[in-house]
């Protein structure tokens, strides 16, 4: 699977959250691009990237309940009516569209009755409409609230969750989570400092054992169901 991450931020170098997320990407299957760094948007190049990607991620901070102006300009330039649906070919149909959004407010502020008086789903509704028009599959929003206040364990968890959001097969089921960790955990351990790799190998051994136990349990439950059906 190929994932295209389109980042919109007017001051990317000053954003600790965006720099952190960029450093978290370690897959050759992920193409990362900063929209505002382009002096001129190459429409043909952008549309070609969209055609080639299986999963498209729009990543940005929430500015006044919307994406930054750079993303809107990119949409107006690249997502032309003819390209998206005008020729009735729908080149983006079936592709996945996900949103990674950072906010300076806690999650509870975006709940109904919260301080912001609007949910993230409501704020992102225009992008949902774009996905619907293009016949794309809308992924659950990946929201990062108050990054500056996250402690180290929370940031480590964010790295894993973010990587899964970019590359894990959807839906986010237990089976798909297991398959993702089985593929990526060995590489994660290899990147650990030498003094931590022994602990990492222990984690891998426990994970593999639990995966085997779960598969055996699933088989047993399947046999029980077959007997009940008989």
Task: Describe the protein's architecture and organization.
The protein has helices at residues 16-24, 43-52, 69-78, 81-86, 120-123, 125-133, 152-167, 174-190, 194-229; strands spanning 3-7, 30-34, 55-61, 96-103, 137-138, 142-145. With 230 residues, it is an alpha/beta fold. Strands 1, 2, 3, 4, 5 and 6 form a 6-stranded parallel beta sheet that branches. Helix 1 (16-24) links the parallel strand 1 (3-7) and strand 2 (30-34). Helix 8 runs antiparallel to helix 9. The longest helix is centred in the last third of the chain and has 36 residues, at 194-229. The model has no long low-confidence stretch (mean pLDDT 88).
């Amino acid at each position: 699977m190929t994932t295209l991450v389109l980042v919109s931020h007017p001051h990317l170098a000053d954003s600790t959250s965006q720099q952190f997320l960029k450093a978290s990407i370690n897959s050759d299957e992920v193409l990362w691009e900063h929209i505002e760094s382009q002096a001129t948007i190459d429409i043909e190049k952008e549309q070609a990237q969209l055609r080639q990607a299986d999963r498209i991620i729009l990543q940005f901070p929430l500015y006044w309940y919307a994406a930054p102006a750079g993303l809107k300009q990119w949409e107006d330039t690249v997502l032309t009516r003819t390209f998206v649906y005008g020729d009735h070919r729908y080149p983006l149909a079936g592709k996945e569209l996900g949103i990674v959004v950072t906010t300076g407010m806690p999650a509870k502020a975006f709940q109904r009755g919260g301080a912001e008086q609007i949910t993230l789903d409501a704020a992102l509704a225009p992008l949902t409409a774009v996905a619907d028009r293009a016949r794309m599959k809308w992924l659950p929003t990946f929201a990062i609230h108050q990054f500056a206040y996250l402690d180290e364990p929370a940031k480590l968890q964010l790295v894993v969750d973010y990587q899964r959001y970019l590359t894990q097969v959807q839906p986010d089921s237990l089976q798909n989570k297991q398959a993702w960790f089985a593929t990526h955990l060995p590489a994660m351990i290899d990147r650990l400092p030498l003094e931590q790799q022994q602990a990492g190998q222990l984690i891998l051994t426990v994970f593999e054992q639990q995966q085997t136990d779960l598969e055996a349990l699933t088989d047993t439950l399947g046999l029980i169901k077959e007997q009940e059906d008989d």
